[in-house]
Amino acid sequence: MGFVSTKVVICPALRRLLAGGLLTTLFAISALAQRAEPGRDLLVMTSTNDATHNQVIVFRLETSPTPSLQLDAILATGGAGGAGGNAGGLQFAGQFGAVVNYGSNTVSKLMRQGNVVAVSGTVNLASGCIHPLSVALNSSRLFVAGETCAEGHTWPNGAVAGPTVKLPDTTAGQIAAGQTWAAVTLKSGSVLQLPLTAGDLLAGNSTAVALPANANNTPLGAAFWGDLLGFNPAHSPDSLALVDAARHVYPVLGPQPAYPTNAPCWLAKGPGNAWYSGNSPGQAISIFFTDGQGGVFYKSVSLPGVPTDITLSPDRKWLAVIYTAADGSGGRIAVFSVDARGDLSPVATSSPVAGVPAFNGVAISQ
Prior knowledge:
4-stranded antiparallel beta sheet, 48% strand, mainly beta, Methylamine Dehydrogenase, Chain H, disordered N terminus, 366 residues
């Protein structure tokens, strides 16, 4: 399939993590042996991001007898795409999902019934908020970051809930939500902490996290581990950093040489202490292991193209990454299984979709 796993020398810090047993207890069994609940397929979704007619593309993962990622459906969102430099443009949690329509200033709701996904409605942004770039979901809230505001909505009905938060510039990369706070990364060089109320609403204010000089260049991807934020300062030597609720920052050295050769950009939280990042210039998935106050880069797994977003399945046993194929054939999705050591094994890759040069956003539903 053209995927090559490139291992690096294990440093003393990683040996300590291994010795502590954190890595070996990440997973109970191999992901490739697992399936979603009986009768329910594993579906992988992305969007075309078409600037006139945005669409959601649904693929179905088959693991036997021959693994494949089959085109299942193409759904019109009813809006216009056009987002760029973003992650989290499509998210799915439980029965419901959301996808941004950048050009229409809306978010489309997705709903799964059995093995069928459908567009089930439109969410309008709060007054004065435009160009949605990224969404985050939990059981009762939809959070949206656009070019001007971050906002919360009740979910799944989509009504605006709580105050909006004005963003200092128009460079938002991604929004993510933890237990007591949410975060927005700004490509201009900032990470904003947005406190949540006891009712899981945005409190209406934000505080910029003070970033060290070796981890402040071009924050992009973001994900939470409980209430601990991980984000990618993609153009910095320390291309993963952790931030706790008290805004303490713990940088982690990334793959070397750093930017422009390597730049982990887009982040997904794996099981246990594993993190996976789409390394765009390195054309790879970069794997990190951390504790609550630091960590190490482990290795990179190469891709035949440039990754632009990444996600894990709800059971953390499958990883999907969207990339633009280096051979010019268009957008692709690659699915990997995740083994007991946190390593990745390629399972299946989608075929090109006619007329779709690149994808935006990726989510897995089980």
